[in-house]
Design goal:
With 114 residues, the protein is mainly alpha-helical. It is built from five helices and two strands, in the order αααααββ. Helix 1 (5-16) packs across helix 3 (50-61). The relative contact order is 0.20.
Amino acid sequence: MKIARNTLAELVKVVTGDSKTSPYRSGPMLVRLFNEFGSNDFYEQGFPPRGKYTEERLLLLNGTASLRKLINTIFDAREWIGKDLKPEVAAEHINKFLKFDGYEVVRDGEHFKV
């Protein structure tokens, strides 16, 4: 799955939670997430800003099957339990960009998937 740079920039905000439409992820949470997809990072002093780190990791995943898996993971229904946010809102937001790349996040039972 390959997406354009401007789509990737919006995806950064959804992954970090900075879009205010998705759950907030701290630096350690982002490290754990990206380590599930091949990174081998540690959260320690001097760690880059969350957005910068997320952008760098998404750039590495762009053009691979892992990008689709990561998006599916962040839209997993369990990620939203206890949060005062709705995955439908985040999906609608990111879909405005994904459609130009030929993709869409859609509901699949309790989850949303690319």
